[in-house]
Amino acid sequence: MENYGYLVSVAIIMLSTKVLGDLTKKVSMPQVVGALLAGVLVGPTCFGLITETEFISYTAEIGVILLMFSAGLETDIDEIKKNSVACMVIASIGVIVPLIGGTACYYFFFEAGETSFEGILKAVFVGVVLTATSVSITVEALREMGKLEGKVGNAILGAAVIDDIIGIIVLTVVSSMKDSDVSIAWVLIKIVLYMIVMALIALVLHRYKKYIDASFRKQRITTYVVAACLLIAFASEYFFGVADITGAYLLGLFLSKHAIKGEVEDKIRRPSYLFFSPIFFASVGLKVELEGLTGSMLIFSLLLLIVAILTKIVGCGLGAKLCGFTRRESVQVGVGMISRGEVALIVAQKGYTMGLMSAALFPPIVLVVIATTIITPIVLKKIM
Fold first, then answer.
1. Is residue 279 within 8 Å of 53, Cβ to Cβ?
2. Which residues lie closer than 8 Å to 145 by C-beta, 6 or more apart?
3. Is the per-residue pLDDT at 7 higher than 80?
4. Are 123 and 103 in contact (CB under 8 A)?
5. What's the Rg (C-alpha) of the chain?
6. What is the pTM of this model?
7. Which residues 6+ apart lie within 8 Å of 202 measured at CB?
8. What phi and psi, each to the nearest 5 degrees, are found at residue 215?
9. Taking every pair of C-alpha atoms in the chain, what is the biggest distance, in angstroms?
10. What residue spans of 241-340 are helical by DSSP H?
11. 32-68 pLDDT, tens per residue?
12. To 5 degrees, how large is the angle CA 144–CA 279–CA 227?
């Protein structure tokens, strides 16, 4: 008989995220925090009711793709164009400062005085992990507060997309120093090709806007759009090495001025809110496993967490300030970029397979990912 245990796991996730989401809302915290905590409580760290399975992992990935596609639909593309230079500056400084901070944190804690190339490269890779930004949690928090379409929300989303591209380049450069088979030139070529392909898609959608909008009352239009979203997400990751959520977000952005926007957004929101998003948020909490977290590693985890938070606030906040944002808006942008999410875990896994990161470093990285993910929406709500 087939194993139908996944049905129980989904039921537990849906109930726990709903109950804890409602509880956190009652104490003036974003509901997404409750969903994240639900994953921690029902996962291996606390009650051990469920573990992350392949089904949960795949479903969570669809959840975050739909979440970022919806964020693209809600983004004010005119605001993005107006702040394009600001987004570039925010993303660039927001990568450089965490890279330096993470490198220094690891080096002075584990490799102080080490002059070997291998030791320094390991320290640099920890810095690379901290450059990652995952704004899927921020998106949900901003949407709850009705701030997703504002100046700060658009700056965060625009900078996050550019951050992803810069992060890939930095990761490739560092990886090439360890593995000569990694070609920096080829990665840069793929990124340029990706930009060209996405620009062509935007051009086609704009050129045939009237034809596409004429179909906005047809029920099947949402099916076509979601299928296109999944295909673009796949192509982004598989062919160009760019995060799937970046492709999903960009497609949503391209369609944000179309008449079909409301129809598509309304039909996607329901299954996403009911099923996919709870599984995605809970899956982040399920990754928390603190086995092997020794006393010294716990201290390092706390130091790395402080560095992870401060470097994004300082780096992205400084970038925003240089581009004319007020002090308050700059801090809001910095806080919105704190969350590392699944992006940091993927980078850490790549470093492990290449021998640039030991298995002992995974608990601290996971702790930083979970903590920044939970902290971001709480602090963001307080300062907005």
1. no
2. 30, 380, 381, 384
3. yes
4. yes
5. 20
6. 0.77
7. 250, 254
8. -100, 10
9. 67
10. 244-254, 261-271, 277-286, 295-322, 327-336
11. 778 888 988 999 888 989 988 999 989 998 998 998 8
12. 85
